[in-house]
User: Fold this.
Amino acid sequence: MDTWQKILQKSLTSAKEISEHFDIPLAEVEKIQNEFDIKINPYYLSLIKEKGDPIYKQVVPDLRELEDNGLFSDPLSEDRDSPVKSIVHRYPDRCLFLVSHDCASFCRFCTRKRKVGDPTQINPKFIDEGIEYIEQHPEIRDVIMSGGDPLLLSDDWLKYILHKLRRIPHVEIIRIGTRVPCFLPQRITTKLANILKKFHPIYMNVHFNHPDELTPIAVAALGKLVDAGIPLGCQTVLLKGVNDDPDVMKKLMQKLLLARVRPYYIYQADYVFGTEHFRTRVEKGLEIIQAIRGWTSGLAVPHFVIDSPGGGGKIPLLPEYVVKISDEEVVLRNYQGNIFRYSQAKEGNGKHHKPEILAKQMKENQESPPCFEFDESMMM
Assistant:
């Protein structure tokens, strides 16, 4: 048995264990466990510094999960777009391939709570059916392996799935969505990295929500994957009390870049039943993007998206940088709040811009009063 499997065996999974470890009334935990299973492995448990901190909130059950705030078990209508048990086919040229029901720890805000931890919903026995579906749909060029967490499968199972997918001529890209480098970095072994690199091009989207999750062992695990030639992106969920702070989010994005992970998405939290206490207002996400863009490397700026309720797909949101558009010019606001003008291109037989007009705009832009002041916190 590998080290990572031994760690998983020692996970806190029962109401009694959670009650005793965190001093929560047993009756409360039992009620919550009836709604969604509990799992906290010893490694991730060790990152909790105190009760109620950002790591604690992500995995320790909370009575508010039982509140009915009109949210949904399947907010993205994945089941509607699921032609067979293991496939969600929503976008034209790509599909989600659900291969594992298990995770290294269970996120309390999980979008797929209705399936995760339930082998009747996601199971390796449905994998061949999913592969057959992908084979029969030549429009699918991009397959995203998800679950649960694909990297909780054994090396042999992963090798089997990747081999089958690579034999399908129209599958160009394979992506793996995983929280293992964050939750259980010990799973990223040299053997696993060597298996994955045999099936390129493979991309991987990891999931980190807080700077404290980027421990030295997690960074080392990410390094193994990058050194195996796997481009890494990070999908982060905006969570109240966890990362809904511009400074925290900027630090997370900068630490990801240092670990050779490209920030990809910040998700607005979904309409998942029992997660209202995690949701922020949309303006908070826009505030965070505005606080990151321009104040740190563009590489550190992810897309802020809402995965639209009802299955409409991901919709990007941006702060209002365009003030006005006319036939003559575009009026823009930069990251500092200053106003700039950009002359429109002339179409057809339209006359060229008069040099004096362009010169006037350039002069106005250059004279736009700077509001930048050096602040040592920007260097964090």
